[in-house]
Amino acid sequence: MRVVAAMSGGVDSAVAAARMLDAGHDVVGVHLALSRSAATLRESSRGCCTIEDAGDARRVADRLGIPFYVWDMAERFQRDVMDDFVAEYAAGRTPNPCLRCNESIKFTALLDRAVALGFDAVATGHYAQVVERVGSGGATVRELHRAVDPDKDQSYVLGVLDAEQLSRAFFPLGDTTKPRIREEAAARGFSIAKKPDSYDICFIPDGDTRGWLTSRLGERPGEIVDATSGEVVGSHRGSYGFTVGQRRGLGLDRSAQDGDPRYVVGVDAPTNRVLIGTADLLGVDLLRADHARWCGAAPVDEIRVGAQVRAHGEEVPAWARVDESDPEVVHVRLDSRLRGVAPGQSVVLYDGTRVVGSATIAATGLAGRTPSGIVEDSMTLTRRT
Amino acid sequence: MRESAREAWTEQARRGGNASSLHTSGRAARAVVEESREQIADALGARPSEVVFTSGGTEADNLAVKGTYAARLRSVGASRLVASGIEHHAVLDPVQHLVRRQGAEVTWLEPDRCGHVSVEDLRGVLASGGADDVALVSVMWANNEVGTVQPVADLAAAAREAGVPFHTDAVQAVGQLAVDFAASGADLMTVSAHKVGGPVGVGALVARRDAKLVPLAHGGGQERQVRSGTLDAAGIRAFAVALTEAVAERESAAARLTALRDSLIEGALGLDLGITVSGCWTAGDATSRLPGNAHLLVPGCEGDSLLYLLDAAGVECSTGSACQAGVPQPSHVLLAMGYPEVEARGALRLSLGHTSTGADVEAFLSALPGVVERARRASGAA
């Protein structure tokens, strides 16, 4: 097959490209330039997409003897990932930009261009497995599964891929643990074998998300309100800087009366209010999520799944069903409560190790108990339109 | 590299010797360097003492621009640089550096749609400021991307009338066009070894003996006190051999390349793909466009898609544009010639040399329709 290996300049995508070549594919390395103002050299392990990273990727491609190109996707990345990130926070939600990037950059913009140029597929260094199975009609079905390395498993950020995208995706690292991949990189003579992993959000290299958002949205002072009493208990400089479940940075860690910790339990963007409450207000077991994507056919009845709401978060047994009137909407009932679930996060549904589908959380609630007025309020207010 | 140059190179490398030393092997190395200097001067219509060896075209351009600027600023207070907007980056970047960091002023000569710089424009610029204002005029002999040959002698004459030094980057011209330094009237001229089949890492700034230059780097002053560093005798030997051979073969090679170039351009235009040729092209004309240069614009395509698809089809070419952080940018040459960015993105530069054959042109032309169709689809997808 003719395959584009997306090469970030890191260890994982380098080994992924090498493995595709070993498997006999015709491989071309492509580095995505995602930033208009790429810094020349990195100062720490954070971030990615510098000129140094492009150089590292080129060095590996040269060593493998494969052609290498840099494709400029900065404009698309700005629009679909960075602008979306800002807009989501401004609307009181908590987005996952890596998931957006996989959905609209790596497996749409990159894949579409690759296919147009005559390639069959895109390979990346994500830790996930694609399992081919013969389906009911005799046709080959490709399933997305968790990686064998639970610490590195990235099936969560790939859960947004649909069957068509999955049919052209390769994840050659899913059957190996990260330490083994580093050993393999060293054995292959890659100079980047010891390069540190990248963490956090690549376009916020210093990790200060709130500061980065402030520089784009400006200060928007507002009130911090007690979710139970409705009383104004403090002030903030922009509700976009808060996310459900957050405890630090409120300026009021504990209530003066009861001495219990206080958490963000809701962000009400239209009124620019941050709602806080005690830990017991954070537990939710009902999710309403939209933007549903299925790795195959959408389920007809309520199905038994495991639900995961953040990268490397715990998986909770749950029931999921598609909304009767809107096929883009999924309702999820969790067997046990999850704390700190923010609208905007994605819920990825698993059947064993297999990814069934994903959706973006629009509202949360609590079954078997009358939801508190404010939480109910935040459910409606944060609903996606 | 040319066979003869490779042999001369390795032979001198085996012999060794430091041309700055006074002992026997040093004297022998110096003899080789000086004999090479004479041959190079002879091939370029210059005097041996006018040849200042450098590490290549980039250093020679930097020395011409920065060295002349510093000297002219000191002697008469002239602080303006005049250059064409289609210069190579080895001239553009030093000019911009002087403007941004050292208070220089610049007047860009804008070329016409063919890439020609107008002598009248230059006269106009020089008339308003004159020798106390303009430190240097720099216009390349022939453009590396679109192949347009400039009226160098007329430009040099206009500069001389105004009392302003004139520099020309002749890296692309040597070996393809008749280049005679003395007859051109230029004060400074850049040449490079590897463009004529010599080794990478050797070049020269040909400088009239009255040209005033402040050195870029100090330490030894081996070359006329303006360029320091132990000379690379082997590289210089190979440079001389390659240049002598290239100049001797020039006329027959130019005729052959012009015919190949014309068949490539005519073939591409005849494919009904909307392709146009940029720069100045007339079939059979070997003097106003570089004989080995074909530069095509393919509408609706990204240059790097074309590059990849042609490479996969076994055709090596270039988009003719610089990269920033590895990302291809539309060529500054095409933008300066007045092409909109969207047209400039579909640029394809094909250079023909002594190894190019009619079969290569055929292979390119037969691959092109499929390549263009795919590249257009990719352009629509992204």
UniProtKB/TrEMBL annotation, chain A:
Any one GO BP annotation for this protein: tRNA wobble position uridine thiolation
EC number(s) per entry: 2.8.1.13
Domain tRNA-specific 2-thiouridylase MnmA-like central: 212-277
Localization per Swiss-Prot or TrEMBL: Cytoplasm
Nucleotide-binding in keyword set: yes
Binding-site residues for ATP, renumbered to this chain: 6-13, 32, 125
InterPro entries, A to Z: MnmA-like, MnmA-like_C, MnmA-like_central, MnmA-like_central_sf, Rossmann-like_a/b/a_fold
Residue span, tRNA-specific 2-thiouridylase MnmA-like C-terminal domain: 285-361
Primary enzyme class: transferase
GO CC terms in record: cytoplasm
CDD domains: MnmA_TRMU-like (cd01998)
Keywords on record: ATP-binding, Cytoplasm, Disulfide bond, Nucleotide-binding, RNA-binding, Transferase, tRNA processing, tRNA-binding
Site annotation Interaction with tRNA: residues: 126, 345
Region annotation (Interaction with tRNA) ranges: 152-154
Catalytic activity: S-sulfanyl-L-cysteinyl-[protein] + uridine(34) in tRNA + AH2 + ATP = 2-thiouridine(34) in tRNA + L-cysteinyl-[protein] + A + AMP + diphosphate + H(+)
Gene Ontology molecular functions: ATP binding; tRNA binding; tRNA-uridine 2-sulfurtransferase activity
Catalytic residues (positions): 101, 202
Protein role: Catalyzes the 2-thiolation of uridine at the wobble position (U34) of tRNA, leading to the formation of s(2)U34.
UniProt similarity note: Belongs to the MnmA/TRMU family.
Protein name listed in UniProt: tRNA-specific 2-thiouridylase MnmA
From TrEMBL, chain B:
Domain of life: Bacteria
Biased composition (Basic and acidic residues): 1-14
Cofactor: pyridoxal 5'-phosphate
Any GO molecular function: iron-sulfur cluster binding
Residue span(s) of domain Aminotransferase class V: 17-364
Reaction catalyzed: (sulfur carrier)-H + L-cysteine = (sulfur carrier)-SH + L-alanine
Chain segments carrying region Disordered: 1-25
Keyword list, A-Z: Iron, Iron-sulfur, Metal-binding, Pyridoxal phosphate, Transferase
UniProt record similarity statement: Belongs to the class-V pyridoxal-phosphate-dependent aminotransferase family. NifS/IscS subfamily.
Protein name (Swiss-Prot/TrEMBL): Cysteine desulfurase
